[in-house]
From TrEMBL:
It holds the Pfam family YjbQ. InterPro entries: UPF0047_YjbQ-like, YjbQ-like_sf. This is YjbQ family protein. It comes from Mucilaginibacter robiniae. Belongs to the UPF0047 family.
Length: 140
């Protein structure tokens, strides 16, 4: 069994859904040594999240942002946590809905994503800053 782990700091991005598959693959080239295994990507933040979805049509990413903004609106007077701005508590809720990690199969040295799948960084803050990931790959 081989186990590899790599930290990756993503550059700051605007609020929205951003494809980061290429950055992840480049950060852990040891995946090519694994014939059968798993890769977990974990984000070390509470106001951004990760998900896997459509990687070809950019309107999907815009529609994700529209949906989550409608589902979890800003400036809700019922929120108690608002010290960091009106986008902070909604960002925590959106991150809780989507999650902090994704796990993907590794097959023949590559992430076994479907034809139209990519890994998204879901940036829920207006000014979230750099985001830190831990990528762990293991297998034989």
């Amino acid at each position: 069994m081989k186990i590899y782990q790599q930290a990756l700091q993503l550059r700051a991005r605007t609020r929205g859904f951003h494809l980061i598959t290429t950055e992840i693959v480049q950060a852990i080239p040891q995946i090519t040594e694994i014939k059968t295994g798993l890769c977990q990507v974990f984000i070390q933040h509470t106001s951004a999240s990760l998900t896997i979805n459509e990687n070809a049509d950019p309107t999907v990413r815009k529609d994700f942002e529209t949906y989550f903004n409608k589902a979890v609106p800003e400036n809700d007077s019922d929120y108690l946590h608002n010290d960091e701005g009106s986008d902070d508590m909604p960002a925590h809720l959106k991150a809780a809905m989507l999650g902090t990690s994704v796990t993907l199969p590794i097959r023949n040295g590559r992430l076994a994503l479907g034809t139209w799948q990519g890994i998204y960084l879901c940036e829920h803050r207006n000014y979230g800053g750099q985001r830190n990931l831990i990528i762990t790959a293991w297998g034989e």
